[in-house]
Design brief:
Blueprint lengths: L28 H7 L1 H14 L11 H4 L8 H22 L7 H23 L2
Helix pairs in contact: 1-2, 4-5
The protein binds zinc ion.
Length: 127
Protein backbone atom coordinates (compact mmCIF):
# COMPACT_ATOMS: atom_id res chain seq x y z
CA UNK A 1 0.00 0.00 0.00
CA UNK A 2 1.35 3.38 -0.96
CA UNK A 3 0.88 6.18 1.49
CA UNK A 4 0.91 9.64 -0.04
CA UNK A 5 2.86 12.28 1.79
CA UNK A 6 2.24 15.91 1.06
CA UNK A 7 5.16 18.24 0.63
CA UNK A 8 6.02 20.88 3.17
CA UNK A 9 3.02 23.10 3.71
CA UNK A 10 5.25 26.13 4.28
CA UNK A 11 6.34 26.07 0.64
CA UNK A 12 3.01 25.22 -0.97
CA UNK A 13 3.64 21.50 -1.31
CA UNK A 14 6.14 19.29 -3.05
CA UNK A 15 8.23 21.07 -5.67
CA UNK A 16 7.07 19.18 -8.73
CA UNK A 17 9.73 20.49 -11.08
CA UNK A 18 10.56 23.64 -12.95
CA UNK A 19 7.46 25.35 -14.32
CA UNK A 20 7.22 24.90 -18.09
CA UNK A 21 4.92 27.88 -18.38
CA UNK A 22 6.77 30.66 -16.56
CA UNK A 23 10.13 29.14 -15.69
CA UNK A 24 9.74 29.27 -11.90
CA UNK A 25 12.48 27.16 -10.31
CA UNK A 26 10.17 25.18 -8.07
CA UNK A 27 6.70 24.44 -9.33
CA UNK A 28 4.62 23.60 -6.28
CA UNK A 29 0.93 22.83 -6.40
CA UNK A 30 0.27 26.32 -5.06
CA UNK A 31 2.40 27.83 -7.80
CA UNK A 32 0.64 25.87 -10.56
CA UNK A 33 -2.86 26.67 -9.28
CA UNK A 34 -2.45 30.24 -8.05
CA UNK A 35 0.85 31.96 -8.78
CA UNK A 36 1.80 30.90 -12.29
CA UNK A 37 1.29 33.38 -15.10
CA UNK A 38 -1.20 31.04 -16.80
CA UNK A 39 -3.18 30.60 -13.58
CA UNK A 40 -3.20 34.34 -12.94
CA UNK A 41 -4.51 35.09 -16.46
CA UNK A 42 -7.13 32.41 -15.99
CA UNK A 43 -8.26 33.82 -12.62
CA UNK A 44 -8.47 37.35 -14.00
CA UNK A 45 -10.54 36.32 -17.03
CA UNK A 46 -12.92 34.19 -15.02
CA UNK A 47 -13.33 36.98 -12.49
CA UNK A 48 -14.30 39.30 -15.33
CA UNK A 49 -16.93 36.79 -16.49
CA UNK A 50 -18.35 35.73 -13.13
CA UNK A 51 -17.47 38.44 -10.63
CA UNK A 52 -16.09 35.74 -8.35
CA UNK A 53 -12.76 36.75 -6.92
CA UNK A 54 -10.15 34.30 -5.73
CA UNK A 55 -9.53 35.13 -2.06
CA UNK A 56 -6.04 36.14 -0.98
CA UNK A 57 -4.27 32.83 -0.60
CA UNK A 58 -0.85 31.84 0.66
CA UNK A 59 1.16 28.63 0.40
CA UNK A 60 0.55 27.62 4.00
CA UNK A 61 -3.23 27.85 4.12
CA UNK A 62 -4.59 28.00 0.56
CA UNK A 63 -6.33 24.62 0.63
CA UNK A 64 -8.24 25.26 3.83
CA UNK A 65 -8.93 28.89 2.90
CA UNK A 66 -10.77 28.05 -0.33
CA UNK A 67 -13.02 25.67 1.63
CA UNK A 68 -13.64 28.02 4.55
CA UNK A 69 -17.19 29.38 4.55
CA UNK A 70 -15.98 32.46 6.43
CA UNK A 71 -13.62 33.31 3.56
CA UNK A 72 -15.77 32.43 0.56
CA UNK A 73 -19.32 31.22 0.21
CA UNK A 74 -20.35 27.84 -1.14
CA UNK A 75 -20.94 29.15 -4.68
CA UNK A 76 -17.52 30.79 -4.76
CA UNK A 77 -15.94 27.62 -3.38
CA UNK A 78 -17.51 25.61 -6.18
CA UNK A 79 -16.35 27.89 -8.95
CA UNK A 80 -12.87 28.22 -7.43
CA UNK A 81 -12.50 24.44 -7.31
CA UNK A 82 -13.71 24.15 -10.92
CA UNK A 83 -11.20 26.80 -11.91
CA UNK A 84 -8.37 25.02 -10.13
CA UNK A 85 -9.21 21.71 -11.76
CA UNK A 86 -9.28 23.36 -15.16
CA UNK A 87 -5.95 25.13 -14.59
CA UNK A 88 -4.42 21.87 -13.35
CA UNK A 89 -5.68 19.96 -16.38
CA UNK A 90 -4.30 22.56 -18.78
CA UNK A 91 -0.97 22.49 -16.92
CA UNK A 92 -0.80 18.71 -17.22
CA UNK A 93 -1.76 18.70 -20.90
CA UNK A 94 1.03 21.20 -21.57
CA UNK A 95 3.56 19.28 -19.46
CA UNK A 96 2.77 15.92 -21.08
CA UNK A 97 3.04 17.14 -24.63
CA UNK A 98 -0.62 17.41 -25.46
CA UNK A 99 -1.93 20.54 -27.05
CA UNK A 100 -2.99 22.64 -24.08
CA UNK A 101 -6.63 23.52 -23.92
CA UNK A 102 -6.99 27.10 -24.95
CA UNK A 103 -7.96 29.39 -22.14
CA UNK A 104 -11.41 30.29 -23.50
CA UNK A 105 -12.37 26.61 -23.83
CA UNK A 106 -10.95 25.89 -20.40
CA UNK A 107 -12.99 28.71 -18.87
CA UNK A 108 -16.12 27.50 -20.68
CA UNK A 109 -15.53 24.07 -19.20
CA UNK A 110 -15.06 25.42 -15.67
CA UNK A 111 -18.26 27.45 -15.96
CA UNK A 112 -20.21 24.50 -17.38
CA UNK A 113 -19.15 22.25 -14.49
CA UNK A 114 -19.91 25.04 -12.03
CA UNK A 115 -23.45 25.48 -13.35
CA UNK A 116 -24.10 21.72 -13.30
CA UNK A 117 -22.80 21.39 -9.75
CA UNK A 118 -24.85 24.38 -8.63
CA UNK A 119 -28.01 22.97 -10.22
CA UNK A 120 -27.40 19.62 -8.54
CA UNK A 121 -26.86 21.28 -5.16
CA UNK A 122 -30.02 23.38 -5.50
CA UNK A 123 -31.98 20.25 -6.43
CA UNK A 124 -30.53 18.42 -3.42
CA UNK A 125 -31.25 21.37 -1.13
CA UNK A 126 -34.83 21.53 -2.47
CA UNK A 127 -34.46 25.04 -3.86
ZN1 LIG B 1 4.63 28.91 -13.59
Amino acid sequence: MTIYRAGPISTGGIALSTCDTCGAREETTFHALVECTYARRFWIRLRELTGVKLPNLNPTSWASAILDNRICGVNDQTINLCRMWSVWRSRNDHRHGKAPIDMAASIDWALDVYFHLNAAREKTDGK
